[in-house]
Each structure stands twice: as structure tokens, then as C-alpha cells.
Amino acid sequence: MNGYLQLQGITKQFGDTLAVDNLDLSVPQGCIYGMIGPNGAGKTTTIRMIMNILVPDSGKVIFNDKATDADFKNIVGYLPEERGLYKKMTLREVILYLGQLKEVPGKEIEKRIEPWLERMNLGEYKNQKVEALSKGMQQKLQFITTLIHDPEIIILDELFSGLDPINIELIKNVILDLKKQGRTILFSTHVMEQAEKLCDYICMINRGKKVLDGSLKEVKDNYGKNSIHLEIDGDGAFLNSLPGVDQVTNFTNYFELALSDVSRSNEILRAIAEKVTVNRFERISPSLYNIFIQVAGADAVNPPEKGAADV
Ligand code: ATP
Fold first, then answer.
1. pLDDT tens digit string along 22-69?
2. Which atom of ligand 1 is nearest to the CA of 48?
């Protein structure tokens, strides 16, 4: 794989905790790359090593065939997991200030401020102080400051946390546009459904180690179409006891059934339709959530998050 950004054997230990363990990762140029894994998997530590906020105990971060250096900060847009902006500044001032830190002339930043605020539905707050914004609005503002210098590569740590479905959609569309413009986007999330809907490539991390990576298509194809996406009206409690159904995962608006024998899918459909109205019954590859459970074990993840399917 052509690695635009490459991590070669990076490791970071905090006391007794091996947060990141000999991790290799290769992010191709121009793609959306999702780093997924449960809380505490090592995603933030990995991103901080890419950003040179933390120095790896061993291993290397290579960008465009060179070790990252001081110039990297001007070509990367980084959204940290802990958000925070200067609360007493106005939105305009904060964008201008942070843009200039990336060595873009103030006049150029000024031209970009209004279109970005409009796009994020924050235009009317332009001259208000940051503290007047809700948490979700501050997050959108921070997203703007991440992108204002038009970075080549964008690294977003837990991008969607704290956003409502409308704003998730807004940000998702910006990310898809950035990809169309040839930018490379690496983001981390513990909500696997988000990665599934957005990424070209994924890397699954558990306890500091990579457990799986590749293009989303390759990863999914490897698992075959042995699952069912099911949408019904009514209570799905009975699904667990259907013969031929190995496992039932309850997502927000649908169920995913893992079948022990796909040749029984017609029979399973009939049994379900006898009890409830079936709105959708489709054979699919397993979701990333269930693939993760297969490779890392059920105790590695929390149940699917409610609302995650809205992405
Ligand atoms: P989350 O989704 O919860 O943000 P994560 O995948 O980003 O999780 P990290 O924040 O990288 O995970 O943490 C990985 C492990 O390293 C955890 O066990 C965490 O407690 C530990 N850790 C992270 N930073 C430090 C630190 N500065 N000192 C000590 N331990 C740390």
C-alpha cells in the first residue's frame, strides 16, 4: 500500500500501561482513513505521536517519505480530542488568530472566515464571544479552525463526539468534499458505525495493537455475506431463539443477525414475518462492529451506541 502517512512500529508505554504496541499503519493519499477501537485502545496516543505531542518510545512517523519535522504543523489540520478555544475572543478573532499561527496571511484568513461560518451555520455569531456558543457549536468552530489554513492532511480525534445528527451530517459532508479535493483525512472513533459509513480504509486497534486493517471493501468481503440487516415493526426479542441465527445485534433502528447457515435465510425470513411486519431483510457482510467482536472478542467492546446509526 502506498503510504502517504506511515507509522513504523511505534510504541508508547505509560508506567505499566503499554498504550501503543509496535503499531504499523499506512494511510494512502486522498482517502478517508478510520482508526477504530474501544475506549482506551490507544487511538489518541497514536494520534498524539503523529502530531509529535508525544515522542514514541520506539518507531517512526513518516510523512511523504520523510520523518515528520517542524513544517508538518503547517500542512496538517489537527482536531484534538480535548476541545478548547479562547472563550473571551469572538469567533472571527479566534479563527484569525489560529489561522495566522499556521503562517497564513491575515488577509487571506479574513476572506475564508465568512464562507466557513456560513457553511457551519454559525454566520450570525461571527462577532460574538466563543463563550456564547453551545458545546456543539464550539465544536463546529474548532472544526473550522482545524481547516482554515487549507491543510493537505487532516487528523481528527473523536470527530463526532458531542454532535447532534444534523451537525454530524454537516461535518460528514465537509469531509467528503475534502476528499474530493484530494485531501487525506485520518480520523479516530470508538463508534464503529461512523467509520463504516465514511471510510475508504480502516484500522482496528485493541489494547494498543492493530487487530485488522485494509480497505473497507476488502475487510468486509473477507467476511462474506453471512449476515442479515433486518428492520421490523415490533419487538425483536424472539430473534435470538430462531434456529439458524447465531447472534443478534441491536442497533438503533435495525438488527443485525449473524447466521450459522445462510442457506436457511428464506426459512428465517418466513419465521420472522409470521410474528412481525418486516420492512427490510437484506443479506450483508457483517458490520465493522461485529467484525471487531470476531477479531478482538466480545469483551473488547461496549454495546452499539444509540444514535450511532444516524451518521
Ligand atoms: P478513548 O476512545 O477513550 O479516547 P483511546 O483509544 O484514544 O481511548 P488512549 O487515550 O490512547 O486511548 O489511551 C490508551 C491507554 O493509555 C489507556 O489505557 C490510557 O489510560 C493510557 N494513557 C493514555 N495517556 C496516558 C498518560 N498520559 N498517562 C498514563 N496513561 C495514559
1. 999 999 999 999 999 888 899 999 999 999 999 999 999 999 988 888
2. 11
Nearest-CA residue for ligand 1 atom 20 is 40
Please give the number of the atom of ligand 1 that sits closest to the Cα of 46: 11
Q: What is the pTM for the complete model shown?
A: 0.88
Q: What is the pLDDT of residues 109-133, one digit of tens each?
A: 999 999 999 999 999 998 999 999 9
Structure-block grid coordinates of residue 141: 468552530
